[in-house]
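tl;dr need the bound structure. longer version: we got a ligand (nicotinamide-adenine-dinucleotide) that a collaborator sent over and nobodys looked at where it sits. i said id run it. heres the input, straight from their email, havent touched it
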Amino acid sequence: MTISVIGAGYVGLATCVSLVNSELNLYNYIVCADIDQNKIEALKSGSCPIHEPDMENNLFSKLKIEYSNNVSGCISNSDLIFVCVGTPLYDNSNTINTDYVSFVLSQIEANKKNSDVIVVLRSSVPIGFTRKAKEEYSIKNLLYFPEFLREGSAVADILSPNRIVVGTDDLIDKEVVQTAINVYAGNTSNCPIVISGYETAEIIKYGSNAMLAARVSFINELSQLCSAYSANIMSVSKGIGLDPRIGAHFLVPGPGFGGSCFEKDICGLEAAFNQNSGINSNLISSINKSNKLHMDFVANSIISNIKHGDKITFVGATFKAGTDDTRYSPIKYLINKLKVEFEIDISIYDPNMRDKDLDIYNNTDFVEACSGSNLIVIGTEDPNHFDLDWEAASYVVYRRLVIDLRYIMINYKNSLLSKFKYLTLVNQ
Ligand SMILES: NC(=O)c1ccc[n+]([C@@H]2O[C@H](COP(=O)([O-])OP(=O)(O)OC[C@H]3O[C@@H](n4cnc5c(N)ncnc54)[C@H](O)[C@@H]3O)[C@@H](O)[C@H]2O)c1
């Protein structure tokens, strides 16, 4: 069988990892295609174009994958195609841009040699999209197979998924669904599988992200309340999360949620409500608003600790630890706000970040990045921050002040940060 993965981003490359790890694919030919020439050149030379733990060794040490810029050529020879291209928001809009997916589907329609080709949408798509696409592009075996990986642990997540969700319709053979599951997840025999209609699977995907984002916003709103009452948000979070009906996950306060998925998937969910009269999304449509308000609360808390002309060093600027991805990073939002509205001088130390769109020099030397700073802000929850040379940094800053937006250094502040005044958002 010839298997193509279209799109060599976080989901596409993680899908490749799952394919090469499945013994079922030993005799399959696997090709990964992307229109981005730089990515394909990097992959051809054995280097992974994204920072993701264990991705590189998993991609290049097992079964061989071919990498190509010739998307239509790959499509024409394929028996099974995973579509993993982006579905971002249009610029300055709350509308999901499905153009990349639609373009690939039109290429499949035009180039497929095998009329029984199985097409598996891994991109997160709006509710109702898959059914319409099946009609529009005459693809008999079109499945919606959403991905739930977390950046920073994409490889571990894809190799041990907590569930597999497949959206299908009555006209597709059960064997087709099983083939797609086997090829993708040959090693995951104990994983719960939900096979449903297209729309159900689409709502599961968007609903999952909206739920996670809601929990983050919920605890962040409580962190603001804690700051008003000098209460301890970490204890509040622990006390709430100990209820097994609630659980502790995603109840960690911070600077706001970010990443390429939460905000846009909530927009997609909201759009589906808006397209149907008589139902309301009051709760869901408040999640993004709450997140923006929280990011402004964080910005104001920082501003209350600095003066015009001061310099701030951000330690970590990606949207979370363990990734190079700055898409919708709350730190990026803060940096831009502080720079543009308050003309603050900013430096960044983030060894993972590759994105240049912050337009600020990313200094890979922590102590140098801190030189002349009036405030150090901890922006990501990376445990490597513990090992930084805080002592040396204390000699090169103008003022010894740290604000920890992730509450991760709390237990280490005496030993590591003894020379600094240490603040979180709620104890200033
Ligand atoms: N990143 C995540 O954590 C994550 C998790 C679950 C689901 N998703 C969903 O998966 C999809 C992909 O996300 P991502 O983060 O991997 O995106 P990404 O931006 O990292 O990668 C998308 C890739 O598709 C390529 N591409 C675009 N048009 C193409 C075309 N016509 N032919 C071939 N390649 C093309 C781009 O060059 C890019 O390399 C999105 O719908 C996203 O919502 C992402």
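gonna send this back to them w/ a short note. The longest helix spans residues 198-229.
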